[in-house]
Task: structure prediction
Amino acid sequence: MTSDFSDKTALVTGAASGIGEAISQLLAERGATIVAVDRSDRTASVCDALPGDGHTFIRTDLTDATASVAIAAQLEATGTIPDILVNCAGIAVVKPAIDISASEWQSVIDVNLNAAFFLSQAIGGLMLTRGSGRIISIASQAATVALEGHVAYCASKSALLGMTRVLALEWASAGITVNTVSPTIVNTPMATAEWSGDKGDRARAAIPVGRFAEPAEVAGLVAYLASEESAMITGQDVRIDGGYTIA
Result:
């Protein structure tokens, strides 16, 4: 069954590229009205290219905690309460743990964890008032296994799982489900830059299916978790890793 989101509004962060763009595209193809949030200059053009009508974009830096409150207030003022929130914005700093600076550590935590929490808190407040909602955050296989040189990234994604479990527990009775999706390496511009050459070949060989994931595959899983069919799934981390974390 292909879910129809014709009467739904989806707020997607990191919407201007990679996985976030693919999620926005798929949900829009299935009828959703998209609120695309990103700090990139591409945000407006990506939003304009989405299929369907009524999409809007908000270009902002979510590492400022007040930005999430402002977004929720802006949407509430227009009578828009998102049915779906997808926290997809993310960055990585790849360095040995001994070498990462305080500012680099904080930048990863701010984007990958803090922004997801404060936006979930702000939009979740609107969902609680209505009594329904779907919140999906993009975590990573790095939330459950160690990746060399990814100390801040692994820490931020692990913390995202803990945050998700608490929100799921507290908000389940209000009809809100909260889950994470944890991909292996995905063929995006960010990943291509990091996982190229011999390093990329070794990474693919370590994945039982022998390849990286595609953004559209991650988007398909997000769409399922955003659907009515997934109403009994909450507080879960759903891995899409080609078997990387089997053992």
User: Anything to note?
Assistant: The first strand starts at residue 9 and ends at 13. The first helix runs from residue 18 to 29. The domain at 9-185+215-240 is CATH 3.40.50.720 (Rossmann fold).
